[in-house]
Amino acid sequence: MQLDLKLTGCRALTMDPARPAAHTIGIWQGRIAGLDEQVEGLPAAETVDLGGAVVLPGFIDAHTHLAWNGRRTIDVTGLATVSGVLDRLAGAPGTGWIEASGYDPRIMDRPLTATDLDGISGGRPVYVADLSGHACVVNSVVLRQLPGITSDGWLTENEQLAARTLRLPYSLDEIVAELRTSAGQVLAEGVTTCAEAGIGAGLIASSPLEAAAYQRARLPIRVQLMVSAYVLHDVAADPADGIPRAIDLGLHTGFGDDMLSLGAMKLWTDGGMIARTAALTEPYAGTDNSGQLAESEEFMRAAILDGHRAGWQLAIHAIGDRAIDFTLDAVAEAQRQRPRADARHRIEHCGLVRPDQLGRIAELGMIPVVQPTFLHAYGDDYSEIMGPRRAPWMYRGRSFLDHGITVAGSSDRPVADGAPLRAIEFMVRRRSSGGRAVGPDEAVTVEEAIRAYTLGGAYACRKEDVLGSLTPGKLADLVVLGEDPRTSDAIADIPVLATMVGGNLVPQRSG
């Protein structure tokens, strides 16, 4: 047997307890053929000496938004004055919609309004998205097309969705370009597999034909598509099947191949912390606002029950503890009505988890898909709005693991920095960008944090048989680092030297 590629001189952390370390990796037909003595005597078409570099399994981002991240909009990130935002938007090229992103109402000198936007729009519709994707500011041209909505331009959740729907759809060519831009970015950060969190309809969707864009794009990374629950529709199936609603052809989680497949069905139960719409059992500190559920409880419960019956793994957006209560109750009801072993339903974000909820998450076998970088970027603000009693409950780590819960790491890119190494550092240090300790008792070890972005992500995506560890027989996806995260004082700054997807080793940057 001749290997296609042999990597030598590496310090591999395999994440496989049966063989936790290796110095030689053999690759054949896009898979790991063997490690160390298993391949040392075999010839190879190519041998690459990594010179002592550290090798990990390729990072898995279990919840991200590639098209949104790659979208060409006007960037107003960091602008703190209305005049600054308007100056950035004035004279926008083109004749159609003026679209901007990165608006942060928390830092503004005053709220941006529709009247402000009218002054620079030239009669064009204007849509300014906030950082979280759960709110926006629009001008009067847009508001006039939204009957029944009275607003000064600030819209959240379903009102925001109504405004965004006026702009849709984006063309397949636009989406393909966005996907290719994002794929290059994530590869440079060591990410080899992404779960796209919601296509087809809903807050993040770009087109009802969105899956076709992923087929056309032929991305150099693996992608698993989460389909929006909004596309469920009545089907005339045999009553004995017990499936009242599905998507066309009865497709569900698992369809596809190793490069592009259907993952979970995505649904939303509340909003976000930046927009103050995450649903809480107690108000945000210093306010009488407890956030909001995304839809009626009847609508959301029906989507969970029908999606479960139709064979989907469910990816349920629930940030606030009230939304998590609803999610746990609905999933428990779904399992009572139609028990499914190893359903692996997920809680996307799982942002504020009370101590009494931990046992229920474990009992139901649900997987928190967390975004640690949220607390690095926004931890100072989130700690203030939660108050000292609740702040330690945010985006937990240690408590999940101590309850036997599998944790999957993700980015929610572009809401925050998408680099896994940044997230891993936060999981270990639990320090915000401002230096504030945020739930320090939730800190985990470096290897536990890496596991969240490798085996944990693979498990959440039902791909642990082929991804997540450097194990013979698994797909040859890996990342080459310039330093060992286990001994580094600055994990987020470790250079990514190369990435590999299916045996294709691609240099990223020099160390």
TrEMBL record:
Pfam families: Amidohydro_3. InterPro entries: Amidohydro_3, Metal-dep_hydrolase_composite, Metal_Hydrolase, YtcJ-like. Signal peptide: none annotated. One of its GO terms (molecular function) is hydrolase activity, acting on carbon-nitrogen (but not peptide) bonds. Residues 46-506 form the Amidohydrolase domain. CDD domains: YtcJ_like. This is Amidohydrolase 3 domain-containing protein.
